[in-house]
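Checklist before submission:
- one chain only
- standard amino acids only
- sequence pasted in full

Submission:
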Amino acid sequence: MAVDKGQAQKASSVLADKDTDFPGWYNDVVMRAELAEEAPVRGCMVVRPYGWAFWENARDDLDRRFKETGVLNAAFPLLIPQSFLLKEAEHVEGFAPEVAWVTHGGGEELHEWLAVRPTSEAIIGPIVRDWIQSYRDLPLLVNQWGNVMRWEKRPRLFLRTTEFWWQEGHTVHATPEECQERTMQMLEVYRAFLEDQMAIPVVPGVKSESQKFPGALRTYTVEALMGDGKALQAGTSHNLGDHFSRAYEVQFLDEKNERQYAWTTSWGMSTRIIGAAIMVHGDKTGSSSHLASPLSRS
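Returned file contents:
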């Protein structure tokens, strides 16, 4: 998008300096481009039409890529019973500081607290358990588009907010080999999307033990280098092993008619990629010649 000298000078005069105040510059671009703004609830954001159009186009492209690998879309509950979370102690410990709880409904105190999903392993496991009887029911490949909530102490628009929008894929497999293959396949989907569609170079890799997803066997990530020289986690794919299957009794009869625990994955990418596009492609005036308008479909 061409910007004449007069427009550039006007824009640069109101934006924070990108070189000396990168966070301020980023926030100014998001606000002035009318992509998003802070909501009345601390840590939450309002995604404005221009920003939502960006997300819609990214969503549509990712959705096509997922379906090409055999994944089908579904929808699961927003609220998770506390007892479901407690079945997976490591998962609860990892997310406990970020979980928001519903304690009252209809003016009455609930007999059991309900967690607003920070992620959906704890609700999907008990549900798909009843969908699987034998190895013929596997692999199970589902994805859902929706919102989640994680109580964020240091919010930044798109990058870290208490509520954000994303997709989360969940798959169930008969063998650890198939589970690992799917984990890497979805990581490659993310890499290809970011590099081919968004022109954001990434470095795929594996997270350390201390940084992996709570309860996962291994967590893989695609990391992108931002304009301030810092890396941004742009998407993750988790090999969950049989950890969650054992917690939620997700079993199947194998070809020898013997009962086995299933092997599962989960993988996600969020509206954070909008922030990534700005921090990778935006110049000092907030414009970019590298990307088409997010309102235009490829």
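Reviewer check: Residues 8-12, 289-298 have pLDDT under 50 and may be disordered.
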